[in-house]
Specification:
This protein is of the alpha+beta class and about 280 residues long. The protein has ten helices and seven strands. The strands form three sheets. A three-stranded antiparallel sheet has the order 5-6-7, with no helix packed on it. Strands 1-2 form a two-stranded parallel ribbon.
Amino acid sequence: MPNLITDVHTTDATVPDVKATAPIQRKLAEHGVKPGEHYLDSGYPAADLITKALQQGIRMVTPVLLDHSAQAEAAEGFDKSAFTINWKTRQVRCPAGRTSSYWNPVKQHGKDAIVITFDVLTCRDCPLQKQCTTTKTGRRMLTLRPEELHENLARARAEQKTDTWKNKYALRAGVEGTINQALDITGIRRARYRDLPKVRLQHAFSATALNVIRLDAHWTTSPLDRPRTSRLERLSYRLSAWTNWAAESPWPFLPGSAMRRTVPGPWAACPFTLSLSSC
């Protein structure tokens, strides 16, 4: 079977992608097409969404946001991964082997978090202090998510650096191809109607049209699982073939005049279009 669209989810333009993740997975489960692996771009995941999906049997294959601490962004010093967390004793050990003094559960932006603080006296005489913190107080602080969320997020960050994960995530290129096909065939970028319910209906009709086209190609011509090539790449192949033909032709050519010859057949009608689309 060809790759078919199984769900369409339309929202207002102001709704961030991360707010659509749970509703999409819920609708897929209701329709009986819950994925074992859900391929998403970096706008859709969050630690709590990754954890909830795993509990429902869905593994999100998606690049997660990296550690935004000053040490991680500068690629210098010790980021969160350099610290050892003991969830039972509610203590954190730093790379120098010293333990934290305070473990404070808090709410940040409506979500549970844990603020870890090392004592000033603990950090003051540490030989690794400059690699660990640049705060005026001279002590290190960490903000963590609850244990299960933290562990899942840390595992996802480690996995996305591996070649195995990168090769797997390359499958998502087919999603971008589907979006471009919808743009080219149905003009889905432009809303034909006002009001969200009507736009949802337009998108559902567009997805249905693409599925019909793919099924027709699968049943009557050839499956759509072959590697896709861009128009620019096909034009390059035609140009190479024409150049080889011109070089081997017994007809006389003037220096530099080969590219100005008229070539009969499909070359003369070959369209050349370079489209730049984003969604």
